[in-house]
Amino acid sequence: MHLNVYLAGEIHTDWRDRITCGAEGLDVTFTSPVTDHGASDDCGVVILGAEPNKFWHDRKGASMNAIRTRKAIEDADIVVVRFGDKYKQWNAAFDAGQAAALGKSLIVQHGPDHAHALKEVDAAALAVCETPEQVLQILRYVLTEKLPN
User: Exposed, middle or buried, 137 (CB in 10 Å: 0-12/13-18/19+)?
Assistant: First the structure.
């Protein structure tokens, strides 16, 4: 079995690297949003022209990034959405909702202090965990039918 896994959510820690490096040897293809924060924020105005109003600056970038995000979520077998501790990731909540609406298998990762705020997002998930290593263990189990040692 092969899995296409989209890694959505916060871009300020190494959680994606921990999952992708740990998945070596598994039949998994990973995709993700643009994780260069500056490029993600400014792609619209760099490509389509400057905007004096910050709302339209952000709107151009969000719309262009949505082209990649929508395609990746549509193509995914599993969507992993991580909510980090430091920043509010509203885009991660949107990605989780989009994945759920498309009937994608959803894994949500966040710390215990976000449990109440994310209860509706968690309710849409097939698994809710706290660490990238738990995400990796879920993927390994799904692909190999083996439990961790």
Answer: middle
